[in-house]
Here is the input.
Amino acid sequence: MRLGLEGEKVVGQELEKLRTQGCMVFHDIVGENFNIDHVVISDKGIFLIETKTYSKPNLVNPKVNYKNGKLVIDGLGDMSKIINQVKASSTWLKRTLEESTGKIFLIKPVILFPGWYVNSPEDSEIWVLEPKQFPYYLSKKKEIVSREDKKLAAFHLSRYIRAL
Here is the structure.
């Protein structure tokens, strides 16, 4: 449990740096019997971020491998259930924002593995990354969210959080 909390802290600190680039960052959003670790709202999109922290096995250069919808962690095996989790959370966030704002926002699911080397294609439906890679991936995206929509989504997400 402590390892998980440390991973959350590391990712949170990394994401907080994005505020200087105009991003809005939210942490620990309670959903329906689950929680979302982080949400980043920027002009490049809305990103739902799940943090996964695991101890590395005694292997030479263990890796996280994501390809064709399958997630395999060296020493731990097939962890594709995480893909289903982040997709379900993204669907919930999309629905929640749509119900609140009347607008449809695209949500990009992201899974971050602090301290791991990650093999993952850049153009995949879900980004699977080491936390320090996220700002780089974000910087390469085109602007797709207007300033007004960014503020609207952030306001409604803030309102949802405060209502709990």
